[in-house]
């Protein structure tokens, strides 16, 4: 769906929420006001600008005094909410988000200032006369191909196209359930929905193995649903949404249990029948068995059963979201990973988060398809960041690196002297950094992920950053063009010659190691934590968890995030430094280009100091990981050079150093990596 069609719901902002007067008379003598969006899960804290002259139902007496006009507008909006679309304009270097296609609706029952909503898609019969009239008037075809609720459920089961949706973006907010509208206007929740997507022709496709329905009659007066304006979307209060979601998930868990019991019972009956048949044959009896074959219920699943009683929700995994701490981040990462059908070890969450918290650059390495980019998405969502790539106020940017990139102009852009403008690269990277440095955004976190970072040589297109990122906060300034052009370019207000990169911007890269990519130089490895994700056993470790619906995800600000950073050193810092010194000496004995310099030592100690108190990753394994991610990444070369480091003992033996410091760690991963490098050396005469 075109994102310009996406609709939001909001209310008139209060003074203390937007940080400025919510309603005022602007220079055009028009009432201007701020609206707080109430749509979860993203944009929940955003504000948009509205104008009184765009409200067809509002009459403004422009000859009255300003206070009277404002009071009149406040009284008019007292019991109304806005449904609107958002348009973004760049005004004097600032993005201004304003409302368009504004529609007013009355506040529902039980609405208060803290109420927030989830948008839920609504489907109905292809023969619904009201909807057909709406399609004609709107010139928008919904392409409904089902007539009854049963047909609709059957189409979900087999993954059929369900038609288009107006005002709803399924990529930005996949629903836990959808609503079905009967001919009499009665609404039913249908779920649990396992996945939702838009196919190449723009049709909505939902999938769910177990489908149940819940009558919404007792909740409908709390919904915002104006079917004459848009029959495709209903706005459901967050508390009701979570209640329905939990009930449907509990029903799914019970259905899975019932199916497994039925499968086991059928298997036992088949085994008993086969045993009886063998006994009969052994006794010489050949009469035909009169027993009928037991029906295999394992293939049957609940379809459309209506839930009328409250179900037990104790088996749902619950996450306490009230307190901001690192355990909450890891719980939310697991929650969003499960929603995306991605499977990671909790230790990977801890390792990745600690590395991002302490490092200027984190690189995720590994096989293609192991979930590197997905982990970045999961992390952004766990921090409550607006991670929708299609929204202008997104706090996460995915930058696909191209093999042709040869210098930083490919990433940043260039000055067009013929037209005296600065052309930012189409990656959107510069615009993202410009937005992140604005005063109003400095307490917001921003994530940049360079996808397949090593398709081009990092040292070429990322050269400025390799120097900038090691500077202290307040001195990290990225230069876009020469200072002599400052004030001469027509769009200099949009693109200053220097951009400050604050602590609120985190840089992450993903890399695949194959014949199409470039190896990192020591210059890059010296500045990065290189993490290789573990691939879980598909047979035993891909375990689905059913989480209770989570309330509003906590939004982590820059200030919140920096409170997690520990500045005190670990008690055994001297021993760790001693270990790293001996590793450094062993590597130096091989070649002067190898070693663990002071920067690496400081970063390892910072990582260990900031390791959360989590059972998933203790000090022993964390130190081992840091040795692998920070030091051993640079050990590569021909057998005559690196060979001594891979031996059990002797000068330059890293294994001997690890044996000496077994009191700190067993170094299981370091030993495994050295064994792998030794195998490569013996096979090819070279290791990477």
UniProtKB/TrEMBL annotation:
<feature type="region of interest" description="Disordered">
    <location>
        <begin position="277"/>
        <end position="314"/>
    </location>
</feature>
<protein>
    <recommendedName>
        <fullName>ATPase dynein-related AAA domain-containing protein</fullName>
    </recommendedName>
</protein>
<feature type="compositionally biased region" description="Basic and acidic residues">
    <location>
        <begin position="277"/>
        <end position="289"/>
    </location>
</feature>
<dbReference type="InterPro" id="IPR027417">
    <property type="entry name" value="P-loop_NTPase"/>
</dbReference>
């Amino acid at each position: 769906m075109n994102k310009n069609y996406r609709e939001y719901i909001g209310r008139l902002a209060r003074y203390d929420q937007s940080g400025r007067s919510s309603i005022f008379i602007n220079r055009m003598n028009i009432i201007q006001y701020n609206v707080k969006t109430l749509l979860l899960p993203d944009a929940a804290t955003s504000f948009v600008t509205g104008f009184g002259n765009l409200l067809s139902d509002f009459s403004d007496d422009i000859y009255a005094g300003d206070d009277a006009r404002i009071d009149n507008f406040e009284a008019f909006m007292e019991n109304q909410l806005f449904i609107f679309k958002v348009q973004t304009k760049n005004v004097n270097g600032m993005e201004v988000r304003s409302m368009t296609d504004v529609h007013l609706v009355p506040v529902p029952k039980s609405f208060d200032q803290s109420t927030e909503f989830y948008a839920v898609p609504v489907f109905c019969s292809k023969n619904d006369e009201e909807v057909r009239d709406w399609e004609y008037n709107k010139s928008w075809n919904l392409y409904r191909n089902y007539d009854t609720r049963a047909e609709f459920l059957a189409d979900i089961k087999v993954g059929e196209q369900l038609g288009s949706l107006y005002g709803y973006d399924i990529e930005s907010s996949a629903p836990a359930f959808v609503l079905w509208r009967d001919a009499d206007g009665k609404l039913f929740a249908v779920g649990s929905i396992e996945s939702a997507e838009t196919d190449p022709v723009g049709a909505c496709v939902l999938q769910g193995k177990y489908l149940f329905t819940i009558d919404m009659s007792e909740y409908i007066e709390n919904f915002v649903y104006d079917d004459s304006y848009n029959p495709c979307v209903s706005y459901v209060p967050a508390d009701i949404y979570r209640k329905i979601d939990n009930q449907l998930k509990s029903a799914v868990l019970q259905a899975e249990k019932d199916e497994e019991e039925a499968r086991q019972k059928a298997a036992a009956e088949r085994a008993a029948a086969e045993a009886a048949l063998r006994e009969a044959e052994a006794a010489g009896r050949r009469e035909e068995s009169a027993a009928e074959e037991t029906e295999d219920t394992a293939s049957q699943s609940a379809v459309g059963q209506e839930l009328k009683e409250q179900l037990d929700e104790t088996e749902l995994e619950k996450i306490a979201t009230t307190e901001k701490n690192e355990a909450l981040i890891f719980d939310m990462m697991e929650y969003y990973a499960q929603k995306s059908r991605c499977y990671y070890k909790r230790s990977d969450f801890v390792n990745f988060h600690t590395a991002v918290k302490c490092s200027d650059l984190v690189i995720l390495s590994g096989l293609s398809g192991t979930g590197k980019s997905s982990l970045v998405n999961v992390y952004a969502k766990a921090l409550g960041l607006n991670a929708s790539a299609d929204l202008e106020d997104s706090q996460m940017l995915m930058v696909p690196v191209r093999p042709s990139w040869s210098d930083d102009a490919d990433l940043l852009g260039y000055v067009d002297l013929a037209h005296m403008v600065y052309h930012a690269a189409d990656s959107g990277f510069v615009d993202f950094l410009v937005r992140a440095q604005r005063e109003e955004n400095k307490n917001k976190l921003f994530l940049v992920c360079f996808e397949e970072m090593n398709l081009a040589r990092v040292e070429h297109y990322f050269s400025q950053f390799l120097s900038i990122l090691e500077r202290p906060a307040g001195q990290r300034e990225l230069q876009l063009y020469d200072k002599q052009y400052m004030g001469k370019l027509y769009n200099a207000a949009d693109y200053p010659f220097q951009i400050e990169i604050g602590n609120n911007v985190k840089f992450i890269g993903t890399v695949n190691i194959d014949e199409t990519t470039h190896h990192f130089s020591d210059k890059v490895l010296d500045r990065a934590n290189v993490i290789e994700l573990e691939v879980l056993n598909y047979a035993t470790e891909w375990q689905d968890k059913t989480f209770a619906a989570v309330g509003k995800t906590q939004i982590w600000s820059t200030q919140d995030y920096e409170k997690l950073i520990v500045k005190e050193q670990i008690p055994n810092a001297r021993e760790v430094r001693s270990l790293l010194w001996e590793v450094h000496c062993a590597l130096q004995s091989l070649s002067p280009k190898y070693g663990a310099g002071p920067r690496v030592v400081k970063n390892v100690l910072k990582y260990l100091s900031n390791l959360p108190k989590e059972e998933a990753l203790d000090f022993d394994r964390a130190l081992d990981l840091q040795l692998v991610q920070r030091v051993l990444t640079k050990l590569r070369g021909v057998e005559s050079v690196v060979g001594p480091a891979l031996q059990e003992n002797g000068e330059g033996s890293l294994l001997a150093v690890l044996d000496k410091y077994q009191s700190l760690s067993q170094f299981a991963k370091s030993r495994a990596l050295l064994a792998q490098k030794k195998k490569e050396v013996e096979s090819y005469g070279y290791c990477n």
